[in-house]
Design brief:
The chain is 36% helix and 19% strand. By secondary structure, it is an alpha/beta fold. The chain binds fe (ii) ion (FE2).
Length: 335
């Protein structure tokens, strides 16, 4: 009897054939337990399936988010490169050493603007806004570095008006300009005339002596390296006691640097490269229209120093990245 009871306990005993009442109850309980087990298994499987679905969905969302973030980043960089930075002019304040500079010139300021490139991709509003920053700097002189337009003569038409608004302490005597390759490619005579109408003297192959409190500074105007012909002999002969008089060579193209150094020219400023327009972090640009890989900033070779501005406009592609447009304000110092 004890053994019967023992083996008839639910879940432990074997069902006897034909069964008793006790065994019937036990059977019912066992069925319930089995059902519960099955239910639990069913739930587990359902949970697993649901989790699996959610996992897949999660992966899909993550992938979708990743693609969206990449597109947003690329869109942001493109917007910055095509729209924001090309229209964000920087004033660069630079100390420019000129050997043998007299006291009268020490601390005087020259505003230098190159590569305005008025065109379909460089608007008149942008140029007006940028150049308006020059008057606020109260410069003593203003020098323009060439490439005023791209391709079409009509882009030179507003130059007299926008250049005519520029002011410097030396007055018209202190407004000087050289010409660039794009001015030649457009129409050198037409563009030069518009520069003159804007109150600037075009100084191609000329030396302009300027005086400040009795001290001289000789501004030497080069011709464009690609399209013109710089008469170095004439320029050097026009500077008294060259190279021991304070002088500054203004050239659109920086590739005249090597020749200038050979001839003993000691300070030079240039444009043309636009700084390469696109820089990569921690390095200079990717490509530059310079035979000697000049980009922007200072370059020195022995006694000859050159500064290249990044310029104001863009050409070919309306892009700039980590290479914003520049208006240079030189403060002259002795050397
Ligand atoms: Fe240019």
């Amino acid at each position: 009897m004890f053994l019967d009871n023992l083996f008839n306990k639910p879940g432990r005993g074997e069902e006897k054939p034909g069964g008793t009442e006790d065994s019937f109850d036990n059977n019912n309980k066992r069925d319930e337990i089995e059902d519960n087990k099955n239910d639990k298994e069913g739930h587990k499987n359902k949970d697993k399936e649901e989790k699996g679905e959610k996992g897949k969905e999660g992966k899909k969302i993550t992938r979708r988010k990743l693609i969206r973030n990449i597109l947003l980043t690329l869109g942001g960089v493109a917007g910055y490169t095509f729209i924001f930075e090309p229209n964000w002019p920087w004033i660069e304040r630079v100390q420019l050493p000129i050997p043998d500079l007299g006291e009268g010139w020490i601390g005087k300021k020259i505003a230098f603007v190159s590569d305005i490139h008025h065109s379909i991709i460089v608007s008149l509003d942008y140029i007006r806004y940028s150049l308006s920053m020059i008057n606020n700097e109260n410069p003593d002189m203003i020098i323009l570095g060439g490439d005023y337009v791209t391709k079409e003569r009509k882009f030179a038409d507003p130059l007299p008006e926008i250049l005519g608004n520029l002011r410097c302490n030396l007055g018209d005597e202190g407004k000087l300009a050289v010409m660039g390759n794009h001015d030649y490619w457009t129409d050198i005579n037409y563009v030069s005339q518009k520069i003159r109408e804007g109150g600037f003297k075009v100084i191609t192959n000329q030396v302009i002596p300027l005086w400040m409190n009795g001290d001289p500074l000789y501004i030497m105007g080069a011709d464009d390296q690609w399209c013109g012909n710089t008469d170095f002999d004439h320029l050097i002969r026009s500077v008294p006691r060259f190279p021991y008089s304070p002088h500054l060579l203004v050239s659109h193209n920086p590739d005249l640097f090597r020749r200038s150094k050979e001839l003993g020219i000691r300070t030079m400023i240039a444009g043309h490269t636009h700084g390469g327009q696109v820089h990569l972090p921690f390095m200079k640009g990717i490509v530059t229209p310079s035979r000697y890989d000049f980009y922007d900033g200072f370059y020195r070779d022995e006694n000859t120093l050159m500064y290249i501005t990044r310029g104001l406009g863009t050409a070919i592609l309306p892009v700039r990245f980590l290479c914003p447009p520049e208006i240079t304000i030189f403060t002259l110092i002795g050397a």
